[in-house]
Specification:
19 strands; two-stranded antiparallel sheet; alpha+beta
Length: 286
């Protein structure tokens, strides 16, 4: 029995296993998702991405996003760029629309990176700033959430299809994110948990960012987290509405448009292609 084909792709180090289930035959279970995503037991990834048939006639593909714990995520900007690139190649087009559980994401090719692969701009939709939309547990000024742990205090709350709390610090490298991230992710003020961003301004309209992602932990990059950080910096008056977000393996350009939509532009990379072995390919293995 042949295995299931997959792609291993990443956006600035934020890595994904991408499976095509537009035929609807994979039969993924939570346990099977977790095994594929496990870095010792499976292929390993920050998120498992599954392509499905779109349910909206304006979309070219439905992108389902799973965290390594098997839970479903609402948005992933870096994965959207990877999937958009695949669909552009498939459809011989410079524009595609990716459907997610959080809405339709219009994407376009803007050029090519140093690796020869496309640079993709994605309209991540509007930043949602109301406390009920993020959501948080009680009415508050979302520019100053009453949440903190240790040296991380006074974050900005934003929803980019998933909840984000962005903390601004003077020295990013001094923050014990692996210790504080889980505490804040599961803080009672976040009924759906939260992605925890820690940002340091390093110049005019330029910041460094690390993100503890809910259900995934500390990742090398987080597209929706970068969008949230850009919006948060603008709300705090630390930057304009266009900002460069520097992560460990590159830079994303985030622009908070006047209609409140957030544009994210950055490169993608294909690490390798492969086949899941039968032990990971069949529903019985779950």
């Amino acid at each position: 029995m042949s295995g299931t084909p997959f792609l291993k792709m990443h956006g600035l180090g934020n890595d994904f296993v991408i499976l095509d289930d537009r035929a609807g035959t994979l039969g993924l279970s939570r346990q099977r998702i977790g095994t594929i995503a496990h870095r010792q037991l499976g292929v390993g990834c920050d998120q498992l991405i599954v392509l499905e048939k779109p349910t909206d006639r304006d979309a070219d593909v439905f992108m389902r996003i799973y965290n390594p714990d098997g839970g479903e995520a609402g948005a992933c900007g870096n994965a959207t760029r990877c999937v958009a690139s695949l669909l552009m190649d498939e459809r011989k087009s410079d524009t595609v629309v990716v459907q997610t559980i959080s809405g339709l994401l219009e994407s376009q090719k803007t050029g090519r990176g140093a690796n020869g692969l496309p640079v993709i701009a994605v309209d991540m939709g509007p930043a949602k700033l109301d406390w009920r939309e993020i959501p948080v547990a009680a009415a508050c000024d979302t520019n100053h959430l009453p949440v903190g742990a240790g040296m991380l205090q006074d974050p900005v709350g934003t929803s980019m299809g998933n909840p984000h709390a962005t903390f601004f610090v003077d020295d990013l490298d001094s923050v014990p994110i692996v210790e504080l991230g889980p505490q804040l992710e599961h803080h009672a003020f976040f009924p759906e948990r939260a992605n925890i961003g820690v940002a340091q301004m390093i110049g005019k309209d330029r910041l460094r960012l690390k993100v503890w992602e809910r259900g995934a932990g500390l990742t090398l990059a987080c597209g929706s987290g970068a969008c949230a950080a850009g919006v948060a910096a603008a709300r705090r008056g630390l930057a304009g509405r266009r900002v460069e977000v520097v992560v460990e393996h590159g830079t994303l350009v985030i622009e908070w448009m006047r209609d409140d939509h957030v544009m994210m532009t950055g490169g993608i990379a294909l690490a390798y292609k492969g086949e899941l072995p039968a032990s990971l390919s069949t529903p019985q293995a779950a």
